[in-house]
Structures are given as C-alpha cells and as structure tokens.
Amino acid sequence: MRMLTPRRDDARRNREAILRVADAAFTGGSRAVPLREIARRAGLGRATVYRHFPDRHALAGAVAADYLEALREVVDGAEEDGRPFEDILSWVLSTQATMRPLTAVLREIPDQEQRQYLAGLVGILTPPFRRAQAEGRLRADAEPADLARVLVMLDAAAELEAADGARDVTMRRLIAVILAGLFTGAGDRLDQAVPGASPPTGDRTG
Fold first, then answer.
1. pLDDT tens per residue, range 108-152
2. Are 23 and 33 in contact (CB under 8 A)?
3. At what angle are helices 85-98 and 56-81 packed, to 10 degrees?
4. Cα–chain center distance at 165
5. Where are the domains of the chain?
6. How far apart are CA 63 and CA 69, in angstroms?
7. Which of 109, 121, 128, 163 could be bridged to 85 by S-S, CB 3.0 to 4.6 A?
8. Span 55-186: which CATH code?
C-alpha cells in the first residue's frame, strides 16, 4: 500500500494540472484545443491525459463539474456573509459569458447529460433563489427553472456577437437587463412583458 500512495498522489496532481489548463483554455476562447495541446500545456504526456480523459467531452464534463463545485462554495460563502442573491446570479451569468467555449463543447454531449448539468446548476441556486423571493427582492412569479432558460438564451445571444471587445460590452449590458428584469418590479406580472399580453395599467413608477 505504501508503494501505491505516491502513484495516487501523482495521478491526483496530474488530473488537477490537466483541469487547470483545460479551464484556462475553455475560458480563453480556445474552443478547439485538442487533448494533445492540453497535454503540452500541462507538461504531461498525451497518454497521461488520455488515461484521465479519453476525449474532450469527458474533459469538458470534468471542468463543468468543478465549476458546479465552485458555485456551491460561492453560494455557501454568500449565505455566511449575507451577500444578496443578485451578486451570486451576476457572477453566474458573467462566468457563463466567459466560458462560452466550454458551453459549446457541452452542447455536443448527449441531451440527457446537458440536462443533468443544468439541473445541478439550478439545484444549487434554488435555495438562495427562494430566499430572495421570500425577502421580496426577486419577482414572486419567477421560477428556478427560469434560470436554466436564461443561461441558454445568454449563450445563444453570445453566438450572435462578434468575438471582439464589442461583444463583451454587449454581454455586460444584456446581463444587466436580465438582472433588472428579475430583481426590479418584483410585483409585476411576467406575462405583461410577453408580446400580445394586455398592456400594463396603473402607476408603475414606484
């Protein structure tokens, strides 16, 4: 057993190194970085990388799992510090915008696995979501499942923008619009914003 421990430690360190490099690649706009390039950047042999992750979809899934764990830590820390859900969701949306190469690869995996990832994300966000509603900061007629739809729409919107500085400005503005729609006018009906719905009545300036 003593002989196996160093090997396990090496395997763990190698896996962590691969994930660090992959995370940097996925958030740096490197959508098509092959595993051999990941191996080179991590300073490892290709066989080592393939032993941990047989293809880029497996690697993307591991990076996504790490992101969910990081999100769980953010949510727990925000609860302890008393930070509002607005801050958490702003971070999630901003991260989604910068991790588009990862989401692009995740779109290639089976639909069931995509749904599992979104369900995991929504599950982590649901408790602070409900607390924000109970405190009157979040619109009462929103549902946690809406968060998954928002993330999908945000990714689709990013696809329409050119990969330059203007896209960053557009995405920040879009995120601000999303947050304003969720966290302001919490008593307003969502269906009043749907095309074809009855126009709003009464004074809504307050």
1. 778 888 889 899 999 999 999 999 999 999 999 999 999 999 998
2. no
3. 160
4. 21
5. 9-54, 55-186
6. 10
7. 128
8. 1.10.357.10
